[in-house]
Structure formats: C-alpha cells, structure tokens
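Reading a protein record of the kind used here takes little practice once its layout is understood. An example of such a record is reproduced below.
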Amino acid sequence: MNLKIVRRSNPRVLLREHTRTDLDTLTRIWCDPTVTRHLATETLSPSEAGEKLDDILADVSRRPRIRHQLAVVRRSDDAVIGTCGLDAEDTAGYVHSCALIPDTRHQGLAVDALELLVGIAFDELGLHRVWCGTNGDNTAPQRVLLGAGFRRTGRVEDHYFKQGRWWDVEEFTLTAHEWRTRTDARPA
C-alpha cells in the first residue's frame, strides 16, 4: 500500500517527492502569513521551514509510510510552485494541505495538483475514501475541492484555535467509486 517514490503528472502539473532544493519555494509558502492565514498551522520561521522539510524528506523512508507531502511543479518551466500532502492509513486518506505560491493562484493549478494527489490516493495507495477540511471562512480552497470532485459533507464548529480565535472547518469527501466514475466520464 505504501509507495517508495511518488511521481504523477498531467499536461500542466507534476507531483514529485520533495528535495532539499525545494526549500526556497517552501519558505515562500510556509513563512508568508498571507499564505498561511487560512491553514491550521502557524506561519513558520525560515529555520522552522527547514526543519519541516527535513521531516518531509525523512517520511519517504518510513514504513509504513503515512505522510505523502509532495512538490507541485509547473511543467511549462519546471518551477516548484507549491506543496500538497496526504496522510494515508488503512482505507482512508486526509488531504492536509495544498498550498501554492501566491503568483500561481487562480490558474486552475491547485485543482490539477489535487486531482493528481487524489489519483495517487485511489490508484496507487488503494484507498477507499479521501477527506479534507478547510477553514470555513475561506471559499477559495472549497472551490478547488469541489472542482476536483469532492462533495461537501459537513461543518465542524470551533475545530481549531489560531490567531486568537476558534475556527470552523468545512469538511469534504471523495470516495474511490466517485473518483472512478468522474475520471471514466472524461473524454480521452
């Protein structure tokens, strides 16, 4: 069920394992409060971003491998533009992040990355269900999830505390059957 090396692409985006050379992009994401304001985690310092990357690199060799945090690469210029992650245990997976650098937003690249990540979850990891939670006030990732085939399944009030307040989370789910029905319906 666990993959050694993850790599999956479509015409616009490639998902691959992170490397040490991704640190500059990851620092731009994890250390920017405008990017992290809607994430459940706090904004990191550059040294904390390096430590987080060290943890991600170590995850690749863990068995069983639970965390799959992958680089999002724009294929037109091979630039690393983001990161997305999935935790997989037993038959379910949790998409815990899909964050891109600000100047790549509103181009459909997050939907592309999420569809590739879900493809890994169902086609390669053999999961039955994938779910995700988003900040209830942030509609952009909710549109991304809906665009990738997820359906809204509920709202959890006061799910996490950040920036001096409690935040609600909108939950979204996609099953392997829904994924296969969706991908089978696409034109070749």
Observations:
- The chain has a mean pLDDT of 90.
- The domain at 7-184 is CATH 3.40.630.30 (Aminopeptidase).
- The chain is about 30% helix and 35% strand.
